[in-house]
Design goal:
- The protein is α/β, with parallel strands linked by helices and 216 residues long.
- The protein folds into 2 domains: 133 residues, Rossmann fold (3-Layer(aba) Sandwich); 66 residues, Winged helix-like DNA-binding domain superfamily/Winged helix DNA-binding domain (Arc Repressor Mutant, subunit A, Orthogonal Bundle), CATH 1.10.10.10.
- Helices cover 53% and strands 13% of the residues.
- Strands 2-1-3-4-5-6 form a 6-stranded parallel sheet, with helices on both faces.
- Helix 2 packs parallel to helix 3, helix 8 packs across helix 10 and helix 8 crosses helix 11.
- The relative contact order is 0.10.
- This is LuxR family two component transcriptional regulator.
Amino acid sequence: MGIKIVLVDDHRVVIQGLKFFLSTQADLDIIGEAGNGEEAVSLASELNPDVILMDLNMPIMDGVEATRQIKARSPKTKIIVLTSFSDRDHVIPAVRAGAAGYQLKDIEPDELVRTIRAAYNGQTLLHPEATEQLVSHVTDNNAAGSEEQLAISQLTTREKEVLYHITLGKSNKEISADLYITEKTAKTHVSNILSKLNVHDRTQAAINAMKYGWFD
């Protein structure tokens, strides 16, 4: 069996469209469907899927609350938000709830498959508009827990500077210019940051920085 997927959306036409395309992928197996967040929570507990494609605005229970409950019970399940909304009021709560990806419904089919495979492998892919909302967001006054404080405390002063530039969406070339270091040095700092924070990519590092308010 390939990557086990549950589809969650209150519009049947969306579910059918996803099934039609995803079923053509040999490594993807659709094992369940839900029409609201409450059904999604129940199915996640029953079927233990690898990945859930989660709509946000649904009756009975919305996608953010469903994501929160599923992640609390099944931390290993990866949830990818698939929605029509890219504003901060939707993106930030979804990420805080534990979403491992955030894509819009106008996504190209091949990119959706890439997002599913990336989430399954522990990586994060976000729609550019969602990324923009994250890196421009100043989090509220949530205090980071001891685990998160330990993570950021492992970074050197220079690495914290580089991480801050990552949250601004800067490339290695841009970081090297801003901090007056070589691009090779910037790349080394980025690699060290990902290792120390135990994340797979720059997007996840930026998400953690924003989520825990490291640069508030």
